[in-house]
Amino acid sequence: MLMATAPFLGALMFLILSSPEVRLPAGDSVSTGQPGDAPAPAPSPVTAISGSLEQATVVAGQTADSIKHAAELYSQTGQRMSSIVQSARTQSQRPLMIYDRRIMMPLGSPSRTIQSDRLTAQLFPIKAQNFTAYALKIRLKDKDAMKLVIGGDKPGKAETTLAAVKRYDAVVGVNAGGFADDGNGRRYPLSTTVMGGKYVNGFEPSYKDLFFVGLSENGELIGGKYTSREQLDREQPKFGVSFVPVLMQDGIVQPIPPKWQISPARAPRTVVANYKDDQLLFIVADGYDESGSSGATLAEMQLLLSRFKAVDGYNLDGGGSSTLVFDGRVVNQPSDNRLRPVATNFLFFS
């Protein structure tokens, strides 16, 4: 509307500033057509300009009203759109919230929580008939909020989970895969290990009861037995480790090989699993030694995974390696009565 009236307003300003004088040629007159009538007087220039000013004032007022009305409509539309977007966002999150409440029911109330824009970490104490344990539920909001680290960042070196947490300034740490001692004080990650999308010591096909478990580039838990590097590459592993055995796949408990039912029967355990919405679940069970008389059996860990509605579950290194660090503090009771240096650890960052 302002653009449409700009030429008129410009002409009006010219008339006001120049104050033109209107003249008729000499001898010219305006006649009514009646004989003897006197010529009609010409309109005064001031009268013409006054009329134009009044008209311009009316137009300007109408323009201002139109602009004000348009601004009010724009504001109202913006408020409505914001309300619609917020409502849609809330509705889209509702199924996740309902599912989260459902999987929280068997876990109970968390004893501690870490909340940030990168993750939500919740710690739950577990009192079983034959052992005590801790469940750690993790929702990754940033796929880079979790990583795998090697002791001292070099194969062959080892460090405790607490040392890794402190060195990387992480908020949560859990021991990860198995390792092999070379007899000279060096500990190497067991079998296939991936860090930053690269194989640490090449690919080794899964054999016997070994499996690979880790996170994909999309932040999803991947795991199982892989007979070729191409098969694992299709999963786009970002990082992962190897150990034995697989406990659950697609919500179905897997048979435990006889060897791992008795070697040892009971022990401190560390297990990793996932939920349908890609949240992660770690369970760390306490035991006072590795003689087989304390801690949890693998069957009992499977029972917990089923009770907690996990989808896939994998046994990680246990015994004296089992360590859970939450908010800078070791919450379980390592069976060595001290923290064991291990080859790999999972770390989480807020």
TrEMBL record:
Residues 1-19 form the signal peptide. InterPro entries: NAGPA. Residues 169-349 form the Phosphodiester glycosidase domain. Coiled coil: none annotated. It comes from the Bacteria. Keywords: Signal. Residues 25-44 are annotated as: Disordered. PANTHER family: N-ACETYLGLUCOSAMINE-1-PHOSPHODIESTER ALPHA-N-ACETYLGLUCOSAMINIDASE. This is Exopolysaccharide biosynthesis protein. It comes from Paenibacillus herberti.
